[in-house]
């Protein structure tokens, strides 16, 4: 186990330049994106509203810029200067960049331009919704995909294997947002049945419900979003599990176990299962992070769930740079940590792995 500590330390140190590189690229890109926060304010004051593609036609209206590549035409010069000072755009780019790195090192992610709240507090407040979606999606996916993958491996080439492969590939091909819309139409008050709620994570009378009532209400609301996100998650894990089991079944130790007179169930679950599940278990942290931050944006919008995905989308639309950069920093950090945890899971499942011989 001593090797894993050295490997973990090297990976943790390697995260520092990786995070710096990610936020640096994002910071540089932001400097060239038209329609900065001050431009958004000018549009609102003129009654034009906000747009994610403001000034994206290549034009360059006359007027000062807000320090991020956006013009501030439409605002009185003194107001524009006050806003630039408020948002820190009166400083040179390199000063803002190094200040950002210094603040991020202490997890000071700044304050949202539009919500006037600390970015870290915003992320914390939205996290429970996204964690709920991610946790239950992964749990449902693993509970179905692992037994299904093992069954497909045992009955490879049969009608069961062929039909289930067809069904999971079809599910994988259906976009999650389209399946979510179909679920709303059929089961949430659309043209057919009104069985499940179409909005929110809890009912309006949540505070008046008993403990069991709250639990039931929570699962009642989260059923459709979880199904919508999960539909495309079964294919990869099921086929990974199937191929992993097939690979182990063809190894010599399985032949030896059968020759000793062990039954197929003992061979499968006593020998094959542990080795075959190594890659599946190790992929759990990464799969959870992927579902948590990459798969729930449109689902949160469709079902009016106030989570991380919706927060990031609104920040991009409003050019709320602290939220955009802060969210990216947190997501990247969690992703790197998840990959490290995945590697550590390999050791927990198979202690024979030697990290001393493994590069970062």
TrEMBL record:
GO CC terms of this entry: plasma membrane
Main location: membrane
PROSITE patterns in UniProt: ABC_TM1
Pfam families: BPD_transp_1
Keyword Transport found: yes
Keyword line: Cell membrane, Membrane, Transmembrane, Transmembrane helix, Transport
Protein name (database record): Microcin C ABC transporter permease YejB
Lineage of the species this protein comes from: Bacteria, Pseudomonadati, Pseudomonadota, Alphaproteobacteria, Sphingomonadales
């Amino acid at each position: 186990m001593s090797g894993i500590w050295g490997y973990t330390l090297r990976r943790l140190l390697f995260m520092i330049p990786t995070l710096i590189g990610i936020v640096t690229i994002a910071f540089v890109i932001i400097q060239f994106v038209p329609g900065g926060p001050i431009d958004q304010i000018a549009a609102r004051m003129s009654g034009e509203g906000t747009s994610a593609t403001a000034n994206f036609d290549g034009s360059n209206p006359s007027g000062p810029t807000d320090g991020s590549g956006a013009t501030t035409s439409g605002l009185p010069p003194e107001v524009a200067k006050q806003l630039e000072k408020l948002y820190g755009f009166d400083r040179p780019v390199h000063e803002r960049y190094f200040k950002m790195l210094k603040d991020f090192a202490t997890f000071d992610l700044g304050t949202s331009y539009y919500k006037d709240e600390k970015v870290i507090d915003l992320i914390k407040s939205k996290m429970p919704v996204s964690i709920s979606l991610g946790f239950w999606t992964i749990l449902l996916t693993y509970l179905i995909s692992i037994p299904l993958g093992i069954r497909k491996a045992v009955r490879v080439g049969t009608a069961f294997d062929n039909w289930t492969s067809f069904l999971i590939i079809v599910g994988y091909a259906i976009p999650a947002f389209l399946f979510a819309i179909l679920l709303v139409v059929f089961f949430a008050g659309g043209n057919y049945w009104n069985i499940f709620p179409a909005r929110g994570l809890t009912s309006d009378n949540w505070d008046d419900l008993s403990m069991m009532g709250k639990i039931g209400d929570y699962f009642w609301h989260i059923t459709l979003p979880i199904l919508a996100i999960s539909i495309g998650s079964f294919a990869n894990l099921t086929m990974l599990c199937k191929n992993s089991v097939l690979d182990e079944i063809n190894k010599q130790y399985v032949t030896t176990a059968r020759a000793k007179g062990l039954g197929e169930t003992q061979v499968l679950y006593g020998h094959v299962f542990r080795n075959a599940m190594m890659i599946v278990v190790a992929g759990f942290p990464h799969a959870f992070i992927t579902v948590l931050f990459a798969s729930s944006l449109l689902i949160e919008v469709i079902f009016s769930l106030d989570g991380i995905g919706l927060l990031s989308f609104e920040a991009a639309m409003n050019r709320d740079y602290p939220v955009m950069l802060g969210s990216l920093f947190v997501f990247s950090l969690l992703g790197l940590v998840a990959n490290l945890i995945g590697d550590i899971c390999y050791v927990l499942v198979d202690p024979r792995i030697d990290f001393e011989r493994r590069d970062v």
